[in-house]
Amino acid sequence: MNRLVFQIFSETGMWAKEVAFLEADCLETARYEGAVKLKYIPYKTLKARRRNGIGEHHTVYVSPELAEKIKKQIIASEELRRKHDLPYIFLHQNEGYKVAMLNVEYFIKKINDLICKYGICDNGDELWNFTSRQCRKTLVVNMIENGATTMELVYQLGHLSQSTVMQYYAEVKSARLAEMNMEFFNAQFHLLLSKEQLTTFSEEERRLLYVDFCLGKRRVEFGFCTRKLCEGACKSRSRSVHCANCPHLCTGIKYLPFWKQLLQDQNERVHGLLKGYQQAGIASYEEYIECRQEKQLLAAYRNIVETIEGSGGDCK
């Protein structure tokens, strides 16, 4: 039962009381095939819901795996529910004792006992102190980092307004600023952002860069542009070789097949160009602007392919 309770906390972000008071009819079939909803009473907003004429119950989607485990708990608690005329699924009764509901404080104590037993520490090398609220905040962080909108968070958490959710947004963004290093951008966007590109950005500028990347505002062919807006218009646009040899280009492993194809095509183009010069009896073609430009582009493509392959997708 304790594992099930922990999974509900982790997957739904529900408050402790909401989990403890789950009833036998808590599972509902959703309109999407194979989807299941978990129905509960959001006690923290219950009065406000009543004032606003909103139903007392709130529902959230849960995974089929979690739904199946909850079904088993409903079946396991059926006899106690019928015997004591109670609707709740987290009931238990030890021999010689009265029937009891889920004691969340005792559940949290057992989690912390395990933390102490196995020496699980936080980032400050202190023993981690578990609370059920941490599962809720972890869920929010994961949702924000995976692109969830404020309205999606409002629904998931059962809030009636966006104000509390915006506090979560601010907290998550603030916490991530110090961690917006090369590894962070690589993990989020699978891009090779070099030290030279990133060190010119302050923490606030990195946050704005992250937002721009999320919104696709800096997208260029096969990557993103890290040029600062204060540097003015892009100076590469008037050149025959644009982003490929630009120091502001930020590309990555997911673009490798495209760069390889460009390299192959450009190699064939240069080979054909040189063959044409030779057939025409032109010996001084190395000084031709066309020849130099095509070779520069070939070298740029080759450098990008080698950089991506040499990194294995990680920042260097």
From TrEMBL:
Keyword Ribosomal protein listed: no
Ranges of residues in domain Tyr recombinase: 1-182
Biological processes annotated in GO: DNA integration; DNA recombination
CDD domains with a match to the protein in the record: DNA_BRE_C
A Pfam match: Phage_integrase
GO MF term (any one): DNA binding
PROSITE patterns tied to this protein: TYR_RECOMBINASE
InterPro entries reported for this sequence: DNA_brk_join_enz, Integrase-like_cat_sf, Integrase_catalytic
Keyword annotations: DNA recombination
Protein name, as recorded: Phage integrase family protein
